């Protein structure tokens, strides 16, 4: 089982938390983003002291942050009282995807109606970054850009409370995606789905945007059954 000290996907890309808000909130946001972007894997142990060293903080804000993540179900405590990324059953993984389907199809429909030109530009930039990462075989960069794309859709939807519902789902899904490691073909196929979503948003066609996102997510459901998960 991987741990923070030896696993290559430990969050080395991000520097110490940006100085915005209380330190425990900065650490919480950093760890949440790392989970959502698949920088940890299912079953990975996260010793508090190693996290504190990684982030350049004391133990107290790290302890506060991981306790919040535990309350959300994004982390679990082991018998030895070390925090760990939970390991999910195949049924639980499939249910996460189905919940994403329910929430994100409504999200993308609203985004088609409410998006701005700036939203479109940002989403196009994120999908372009995904394609570059896919061509290079850079899974870490791909997953980070993919997260930005989907969070950008949520922002474009302008639905109150949506982030509070989607983020916990992504915290659970990100480690699963990293564990299964989408290959180059999976990643490129995802960018094609995203191109379809972008074209639908450009036309303000909510139904077409929903259809493209549904196809993307269903691809993920089928891949779970086959044991490999392309990330939608």
TrEMBL record:
<keyword id="KW-0805">Transcription regulation</keyword>
<keyword id="KW-0238">DNA-binding</keyword>
<feature type="domain" description="HTH gntR-type">
    <location>
        <begin position="21"/>
        <end position="88"/>
    </location>
</feature>
<keyword id="KW-0804">Transcription</keyword>
<dbReference type="InterPro" id="IPR036388">
    <property type="entry name" value="WH-like_DNA-bd_sf"/>
</dbReference>
<dbReference type="Pfam" id="PF00392">
    <property type="entry name" value="GntR"/>
</dbReference>
<dbReference type="InterPro" id="IPR008920">
    <property type="entry name" value="TF_FadR/GntR_C"/>
</dbReference>
<dbReference type="InterPro" id="IPR011711">
    <property type="entry name" value="GntR_C"/>
</dbReference>
<dbReference type="InterPro" id="IPR036390">
    <property type="entry name" value="WH_DNA-bd_sf"/>
</dbReference>
<dbReference type="Pfam" id="PF07729">
    <property type="entry name" value="FCD"/>
</dbReference>
<dbReference type="InterPro" id="IPR000524">
    <property type="entry name" value="Tscrpt_reg_HTH_GntR"/>
</dbReference>
<feature type="region of interest" description="Disordered">
    <location>
        <begin position="1"/>
        <end position="22"/>
    </location>
</feature>
<protein>
    <submittedName>
        <fullName>GntR family transcriptional regulator</fullName>
    </submittedName>
</protein>
